[in-house]
Amino acid sequence: MILDEMEDAAMPYLVVPLTAFAVSMLTLFSGFGLGTLLLPAFALFFPLPVAVAATAVVHLANNLFKAALVGRKTDWGVVLRFALPGAAASILGAALLGVFSNQPPIWLYRLGNRSFEISLLDLVIGLIIIGFALFDMLPALQKLAFPRKYLPLGGLLSGFFGGLSGNQGALRAAFLIKCGLDKDAFIGTSILSAVIVDLARLGVYGVNFYSAKFSAIPQGMGWLVLVATLAAFSGAVAGALLLKKVTLRAVQVTVGVLMMITGAGLAAGWI
Predict the structure, then answer these.
(1) Which of 24, 70, 152, 215 is the most exposed place for a label (fewest CB within 10 A)?
(2) How far apart are CA 199 and CA 212, in angstroms?
(3) Helix axes 151-165, 169-176, angle to 10 degrees
(4) E strand or H helix at 71
């Protein structure tokens, strides 16, 4: 019994940091973001609002680290046009996350001897994860791009979904890809835009989850976030050294399938 409890306590420290390392290594040069799989990894062990906030902390720290690595050619004109509307919209999305987390279950059902409940928050974020998974799986959506004049709209959309669910990378890429940036400028601009959105949404998460509901934060969460952050840093360094010329199509499809499974599990109340 004691051994089982120790294994259960150790499992988050195995799954979450390994996920942070692997995804951070791949995200430096791929289309999806760190929160794509890190959020589901946290959500396996903790309440969804706490998982979103913890993911945001790791996401921000990792983006600051990556900005130091590859952010020298950032196009600040694009950042300001895209990220400032994104920051404002992320505040709205993060506030909505707090509202959804306080709603009672919308459906209770049984499968065999087990009971399940579907909350509004789980349903919404599960569907969002499924939607973003399609960006990694369907070539037509991967090629989706918008003219430069729609940068503020793109910032609003990606920022809102970033605040609500932590998923924003695919939309951000779709709106930045047509800005005429070279590879280094695109990466730096994308990372700095994400940093600005992260700073805005973390302020709201702090009010909603770290102040008003401090008692709801599981013991040891701070250490887990620190370990996951260090793992993400290591992954970013590995990505910068090893993955500049790697084709990631197979990885993107794998990520998409995992996201579909996770999103369906959340929406159905199984996670």
Answers:
(1) 215
(2) 19
(3) 170
(4) none
Tokens standing for 176?
């930045």
Does an H or E element contain 142, and which? helix 139-142
pLDDT in tens, 92-136: 999 998 888 888 888 888 887 888 888 888 898 888 888 887 876
Q: How far apart are CA 58 and CA 137, in angstroms?
A: 25
Contacts of 113 (CB under 8 A, 6+ apart): none
Tokens standing for 251? 């990885």
In contact, 42 and 51? CB cutoff 8 Å:
yes
Backbone angles phi, psi at 181, to 5 degrees: -85, 145
In eight-state DSSP terms, residue 206 is: I
Does an H or E element contain 110, and which?
Answer: strand 107-111
pLDDT tens profile 169-205: 778 888 988 888 887 888 889 889 999 999 999 888 8
pTM score of the predicted model: 0.79
Nearest to 269, CA basis, from 117, 163, 164, 140: 117
